[in-house]
Amino acid sequence: MRIVIVGAGPAGGTAALMLARQRRHEVVLLDRDEFPRVKTCGSGLSPLCIGLCRELGLHETMARHAYGVCGLRFTGPAGHMATLAGPEGAWVVPRATFDAEIAGAAERAGARFEQGFKVSRLLLDAAGRVRGVAAGDRELEADLTLCADGAHSRFSVDPRPKRTIATIMGWYEGVPVTPGHMEMWFARRVSPWYGWLFPETPTRVNIGLCYHPDDPAKPRDIFDELVTRHVGERLRGATRLGRLRGAPISYTDSVGPVTRRGALYLGEAARLTNGFTGEGIFYAMKSGVMAADLVAKHGGRTFGGTTLEREYQRAVERAFNLRFRVALAFRGFRGSEAFTALTALLAFKPVERVLHWALLHAT
Fold it and tell me: Tell me: the pLDDT tens digits for 137-159?
């Protein structure tokens, strides 16, 4: 059968790769952009995400591009600072590279990757079942459509008001950093969210912050305030690469509708993002794997019924609902005075170890 995938980010790319490896379907991966393309994202890969890359046979490929992280320079809400160090536990791989590598692997496995294909609408049959996609006058028929078109998904079936985190970030060359360390600043100005500095190479970093989407201040002003405070003199002599970029992160406290007849929703198009950290790469890839696994389970039949959709809905709920609820509980704690008090105790090793583990594994 033909499976069309809208969006070649981590969710769509992973689904295309796993489906192509089944050697049973015609897999068409679509993206509106030309690859490689810049993506607004801190590009940090958690231990869970690295483990998933290993399971998918992508570990070696990504390791070639990864900047290994073995520590964290942490600043608490009251300005208390600590360096939390340990064995390498995370990677930073620029999303332009990460997404292109997965899509390329899907192509090599047999998927067809069409770039610059801007899907404008879903095609529906007389009964309302999704039967493919269209871009202008061009139509692509499909037996199954996977929507992985991100936070701005035009085709979402979740009727709930969208919950978002605003972000703004930029790339810099020549900012001095502690080798192998990322930085996070849990400033009151953007509480309960944070600012970050993630090294992508020994000389290039990305710097950004998450903040409330209803903040009345100009995003550039918030960015300048926090970056000046936490990076300050280290920016002297550094070069910003291109303009600052912003994008929303769409999240949820529980999985909503992620299917309709003939279609499954993956990754951020289904709001599968951690509301504590803003991390979505692991959830995107995992949802792509789950979709592909269920297609394999149901064989090469055309999906005219609801069994696949129902099983995918249940699988996503089982996999993520508890994680999302715990994430928002942690976020509530992070915005509290108790968190501020805890970060004042970072000089004590037990507190340091607990916080280091929590921040690495909070995905």
Answer: 999 999 999 999 999 999 999 99
| Rg of the chain over all Cα atoms, to the nearest angstrom | 21
> pLDDT tens-digit profile of 44-60?
999 999 999 999 999 99
Model confidence at 97, pLDDT cuts 50, 70, 90, reads very high
Instruction: Look up residue 124 and give its two tokens.
Output: 């529906």
Of the CA atoms within 13 Å of residue 210, those in its CB half-sphere come to 22
Q: What share of the chain is helix, strand, coil (3-state, %, to 5)?
A: 35, 30, 35
The count of structural domains within the chain is 1
Residue 346 to residue 196: CA distance in whole angstroms? 19
33 with 146: CB under 8 angstroms? no
**C-alpha–C-alpha distance, residues 271 and 156, integer Å:** 9
* CATH assignment of the domain containing 64: 3.50.50.60
- Please state whether the predicted TM-score (pTM) of the whole model is above 0.90: yes
Name residue 20's amino acid. A
Containing structural domain, residue 90: 2-361
